[in-house]
Design brief:
This protein has helices at 8-13, 24-34, 43-81, 84-87, 96-105, 111-117, 121-127, 130-134, 136-145, 155-171. By secondary structure, it is mainly α.
C-alpha cells in the first residue's frame, strides 16, 4: 500500500513523537512555496495561509507556556508547604545530624558533605564512605529537590550560607 503524500500544510501541522513541535523545515518550505505564484491563487491567499499556520502554532505555544507557568506556581506552593521534617525525609539517617547542623545552623560539615554541597562530585566521591557512595544519586536528588537553593551549588554559595547562618546566630 502506497503512502499518501502529505500536503505542505499537513506537514507543517504533523505531530512528532508524543508532543507537537513546530516543523521549521515545513515553515521554510511554506515560505518558498508561497512565494511561487503557481501555488497560490493570489499573493494574499498565500500570506493568509502562512498567517493561519503561524497563528495556530503561536496559540499552541501560548497554551504550553500557560501550563508551564501554572505548574511552576503549583511547585512553589508545594515547596512552601514542606515542613522541616519533610526537608530531611530523604537524607540517610547516619548523616541527618550533619545535614541539619549545616542547613539550620550553618555548621560546616565533614569533607564528603562539604564537597557535595560545593557541587564537587569528584571530591565528594573521594571522601565518601561506602554508604554515601551507594547513595550518591539520592544525595544529588535531595539537593536538587529539597535543600535550600542558596545553601549549595558552589564553594561561594556554601561560604555565603555559612556567613548568613553565622550572622543569624550572632543576632540572637
Amino acid at each position: 500500500m502506497a503512502k499518501r503524500k502529505l500536503t505542505y500544510e499537513q506537514r507543517l501541522m504533523k505531530p512528532y513523537g508524543d508532543e507537537k513541535e513546530v516543523n521549521w523545515e515545513g515553515f521554510k518550505e511554506a515560505f518558498i512555496r508561497v512565494g511561487k505564484p503557481e501555488n497560490a491563487d493570489t499573493p494574499t491567499k498565500g500570506v493568509e495561509l502562512l498567517a493561519g499556520i503561524i497563528t495556530h502554532h503561536m496559540k499552541e505555544r501560548q497554551e504550553l507556556l500557560n501550563d508551564l507557568i501554572r505548574m511552576e506556581e503549583e511547585n512553589e506552593a508545594l515547596k512552601k508547604e514542606m515542613t522541616k521534617e519533610n526537608l530531611y525525609t530523604h537524607v540517610p539517617e547516619n548523616m541527618l545530624p550533619h545535614v541539619k547542623n549545616y542547613v539550620e545552623n550553618g555548621i560546616l560539615p565533614g569533607d564528603f558533605l562539604a564537597a557535595l554541597l560545593e557541587n564537587n562530585l569528584v571530591n565528594a566521591w573521594g571522601h565518601a564512605d561506602e554508604s554515601n557512595r551507594e547513595h550518591l544519586q539520592e544525595w544529588v536528588w535531595w539537593l536538587k529537590n529539597y535543600a535550600p537553593r542558596e545553601c549549595w551549588g558552589s564553594k561561594e554559595k556554601v561560604i555565603g550560607w555559612l556567613n548568613k547562618k553565622s550572622n543569624e546566630r550572632n543576632r540572637r
